[in-house]
Structures are given as C-alpha cells and as structure tokens.
Amino acid sequence: MDENESPAVRLDGVHKRYGEVVALDGLSLSVDRGELFGFLGANGAGKTTTIKLLTGQRTPDAGSVSVLGRDPSDDPVETRRHLGVLPEREDPPSFVTPREYFAFVGRVRDIDEETLDARIDGWTHRFGFRDQLDTLCTDLSRGQRQKVMITASFLHEPDLVFIDEPLANLDPVMQERLKAFLVDYTSEDNTVFLSTHHVDVAEGICSRVGILRDGRLADDRRPDDEDGRLLDAFFDGVRSE
Amino acid sequence: MSAGRADGLFWALFREEWRLHADLFGGRRFAAFPAFVTLLAAAALYGLHVVGTPLADSLAGLHALVFVFGLQTGAVAFVSSDALDSLLGDVTLLLSSSRTLPVSERRIYALFLLKDALYYSLLFLAPLALAVAGVGVATGRLDLVVRAPLLLATLAGTFSLGLATTLVGIGLGRRGVVGRVLLAGCVLGVVGALWKGVPVVAYSPYGVFATFDPLRAVVALVTVSGAGVLGWWLFDPDHERRARTTRDRFDALSERLGDPLAARSLLELHRSGGGVVKVVVSTAIVAGVAVALLELVSRVVGEPPAPAIALGAILALTAFTTYNWLTQFDSLEEYRTLPLSVGDVFRAKALGFALLLPVGGAGYLATALYVGVTVVELAVGGVLFLGVSAYLFGVTVLLAGVEPNEFLFDTVLFATFTLCVVVALVPVLVAGLVLPLTATLAAGVVAESLLLGAVGVLALRRAAPRWEARLLHDS
C-alpha cells in the first residue's frame, strides 16, 4: 500500500510488558487520516504505552505497528519528523523562554524563520500568552507551560499529532479554543490521536472513539452511535473490572 | 498536631526518603550502599595512613567533607527545586503536605530537617564511623574503636550544621537587602575570625572530637541547635520569585555553535542557579585538592619530581563534574518526542563539554604555575589532562547516559566507574609522583593519553546505540 494511502495509525496484535505488568495484550486498532480519534481508558489502561510505541519511543514485544505507512521502530527519528507529540507529563525546559524553546523546536524540525514567526504569532494569539514569550519557562504557571507544549507540538503543522490530556491545566476558555482548533485541524485531512480519560471531551469533539481496557481495544464507536452512550460504554467496562 | 501524629509524620518522611533513594538508585541494590561506603572510606583512610598521612588529619578532612555534604543536601532539598524536579521527575513529596492537609508548614519543615539529620546519619555517617573503627583496628589505634560513637555524634553534628547553615543562608538571602547584608556580615565574620586565629573550629563538632571537653561539647551543641532553629525560623517555604524575563539568546548561540541542542544545554547551564560559576567552583575544589595532595606527598616522600603529570591526571577529574552540570536538567525521554536520536543528544553534549573544557584546563594551568613546572612538563601534563578528560567523558556517557548523578547512589555503577578511573589514573599518578620526567616517561604519558582519548571516543560512539536500545526495549 502506498504510504499516502495507508491509515494514519495501525496496530495489529500488539503486546507490551513491563516486567510482570502487562501494558498491552494484543491491541489492534486502525485510525484513518483526517480522523480526530479519541483514545479513552482508565488510569493505567495502556494509553501512554500505546503512544510511546506509535512514536518510536518503545518497541512492541510482539505484533506490528504502522504510523503513516511506516514502522516507527525502523527509523524513529524519521517517523517523529512527520509527527507532533504532546506527552502527558512534560514541561518545556526550565531555563529557556518560550520564544527560545520554539526557536529550538523550529531548528530541530527545519522550519524556516518566517514561517516559524507566523505560527508562533498565531498560537500566542490563540492562547493569549504573547506577554510571556520572554519569561523563563520555570517561572510560568502550569497552564502557561501547557500552552507552550501544545504550541511546540503543532509548530510544524504535522500530518498526525499524538496528544495526551491536552486540556490539563487550561482554563475553560482556552479549553474551548483548543477543542475548536482540533476539530478545525482535522478538517484539513490531518489526524489527531487524542488520549484522554475525559469522556465528555471525547464525546464532544472526536469523530471516533476507542476504549482501551486491559491492554486491548474493548470498544470502537462513533460518539453518535445509537447503541448507547459513550459514557455508559466506558463505565460498563470499569464496573465489570 | 499531637506528639503521636508528629511522630507518625516523622517516620513517614523517613520512609519516603528511603523509597525515593531506592527507587532512583538501583532498587534493592541501594541497600548495599552503606556497606559500600564503609569499604570505600576504610580503603581511602587506610591508603592515606599507608602513605604517611596522620589519621588525625584524615579525620579532620572527613569532618570537612561531611560539612560540605550537609550544605549540599540542604541546597538540593530547599533551593534547587529545578534540580530536584529534573532528578525526580513528576513527584510530590510529603514536604508539601501542608498545602493540602491541616499540618503546619513550620512543623513539617522542622520534622523534615530532623529526618534528614537522622536518615543521613544512619545511611552515610554510621558507615563512615564504622570505617574509621575498622582502620583503628587495622592500625593498632584501638582508641578509635572506643571513640566511634563520639565520632558518629560529631559527624552527625557537622552534617546538621551544614544543613542548618544552608537554611540560614537561604533565609537571609531571601529577605531583601538587609538579609543579604546580614548574610555577607556573617560570612565575613566567620572568615575574619578564622583569619585572626579565633578558635572557632575548636568549638565545632569536629573540635569536640579532636579534643573532648564538656564546655566545647555544650558550645558545639548549642551552636548546631541554634543554627537549626534560626534556619527553620528564617526559612520561608512560601517564598516565590518574581517571573524572570530575558531577551532571546538562543538563536545567536545556536547559529554560532551550529547545534541547537548544545546551545540549549549551555543556556540552561548559564541561567540555572549558580550559572557557569558552578563549573568554576567545582574546578577550584579539585584544584585545591590536587595542590593539597602534592603538598602532602612532598611532606611524606619528598618533592614530586614531575608534578605536572599528577596535576594533569587529577584536574581531568573535572570532566565528571563538568558533565554533571551540563546534564543537570536532561532526560533522554524528553528528546524522544522530537526527531532527535540519542546520538544527536550525545554529540551536543560532547560539543558543550568541549566548550567548557577550558575551565578545567585553566585549573590545570593555574595549579601547574602555582606549583612551578617546566614548559615540557606543562605540555606533557596538558596532553594527559586532555586524554584523561576525553576518556572520563566517554566512559561517563557510556555508563550513565545523561544522568551521571546516578553514580552517586547506584552501587554497581559507582563501583564500575571507580574501577575505570582507578585503572586509568593510578599508573600515571604514581609515575608523576615518584619518577623524574625523562624522555621515556614523557613518551609513555603521551602514549597513554592518546590511548585513553581513543578509548573515550570509542566509548562515546558505543554509548548512543547502547542507550538507544535500552530506551527502545525498556521492559
């Protein structure tokens, strides 16, 4: 299959263990290009491990992984060139300013200066943090640091973005702006893989939702499916544990 | 809070410290650390005794080291929250319980201080006292066995004094100009008293160990307790710094270096607490130790015939401290969200290290000029400095990646690194201290320098695939 025709994300029978702990137990999943895919799961369900496998940070013990038509573990650096990644628990470096951090990301991702400036301008406008561009990141609030990390993960306007709990620490206005942006972003045939445990967020903006349970895909549905509410599907699994 | 609850919190803090260390540094292997400390300290003290160092001098040095350790422990726990975050990642300590629970901040900080004093006394200071007792047995100084409990008490007092001094310093430093003037006055007062020969040290915990006398013991106890109470009273856990802004320096630096990662590393080093001065201070300490060692050797076996070689070898140890500062805020995981390989990160670190190497070089030059060496000796020692520096850098990266502070507590890693240092340094160190610099020796030293440099480069090359595989297959 041509790289451009392949699904944005595909996992087939993927297993991953950390010592005695089984993180993924035969996970199979496919996400098409242009989807805003919500990846739901309880704490410890394996969401972060899945993202690490998809972004070439880890290799699976068994099974196959494909991202934009390539196996990320074959060439993780090249794979990540085409991806945006927003980890759940990551702050920008403490002793550089947001402006400097964006310049750093721009250089690593080969974004020309003019384009970079325009995109930084757009994001500082969207998130209203222009005044903090020259403040050391260590002195920013948690919410401001989250805005910096979100901006950094979208600076190169990637075809596929993995974002883990992007709304954390953002105020309600910023949450709404980000949600609107994500919907808009996927309308241009980009793919967003949104990992969250906020069912309402997934229900509100995602075009499709997968529920991860015990390292497997327990449910895969569109939020407007008529066979019950997403929240019920999510809690059914939790209750059965 | 009732006494019972305070007691419970104290032991909870104690357990937390243990689990934190065990989790960070080798899991169950960390339990072997006190035994390792005992063996290492005993070997060092016995070695110093064999080369003629009076045990009294070694024990004075031991107290000085413990004081510095107390200062550093206080600084890491109470000041350098960035360093702590970098080291520990996203963790919440019981120390911050007062934000969410009905526990007084001041009380929890007092318990935290007491916990540190007890924890480090048991884990580090008791093994040191045991090592001294062992050396006492081996050298026929049985009085050291009898005085081991006193030694443990004075080491604990010295450590607590260091911890409290840091707290007093931080507390005053955060109280505006008046506080800083007072702090400067205190420092100048102590330095002046020492300069004028006021017997300050005699009334310190070390003074109590050196010559026991009840008055000294009481004064030392009051001094340590007083410093602790003052530090606790002055320290403001809610202190918040104003947001610092700075103009963009990244682009110009990145352009000049041709490596954005190296530029970022150097900027972080420059802007973090202590800035580049940290590197200079570390080098100055190593330089001071090197000069003191040469003077000691002079007293014991006579003037070293080729001191530049010994200085080149010892000053190259700054490679480790410099790399430590350069990686203070690093984690390989963070870079793996960007199109960067582990090799890219190590290459950037090598560039940053090369740019900071002149600091260690200046230390070598200064000590060599102070001791007085010929131009040829200076050149040979300089080549050795470069070779050993490259070797230590490569070996450190290979063993510890970008987290060299793991050496401090991972017994196996520390032992491996120590072995690598000993194998490389001891032959040239001994040669430099006992042999005159003939053409043959110079050629041998240059050859060893080149060999060590090559091993360092090979280790660095091997490090990238090793760490890449380790991260990818983490399980």
UniProtKB/TrEMBL annotation, chain A:
PROSITE patterns: ABC_TRANSPORTER_2. Keywords: ATP-binding, Nucleotide-binding, Transport. Residues 9-239 form the ABC transporter domain. The keyword Nucleotide-binding applies. Transmembrane segments: none annotated. It holds the Pfam family ABC_tran. One of its GO terms (molecular function) is ATP binding. InterPro entries: AAA+_ATPase (IPR003593), ABC_transporter-like_ATP-bd (IPR003439), ABC_transporter_ATP-binding (IPR050763), P-loop_NTPase (IPR027417). Belongs to the ABC transporter superfamily. PANTHER family: ABC TRANSPORTER ATP-BINDING PROTEIN, ABC TRANSPORTER ATP-BINDING PROTEIN NATA. This is ABC transporter ATP-binding protein. It comes from Halomarina rubra. The lineage of its organism: Archaea, Methanobacteriati, Methanobacteriota, Stenosarchaea group, Halobacteria.
UniProtKB/TrEMBL annotation, chain B:
Keywords: Membrane, Transmembrane, Transmembrane helix. The keyword Transmembrane helix applies. The keyword Transmembrane applies. The chain crosses the membrane at residues 30-48, 117-138, 150-170, 177-195, 215-235, 275-294, 306-326, 350-372, 378-400, 412-435, 441-460. This is ABC transporter permease. It comes from Halomarina rubra.
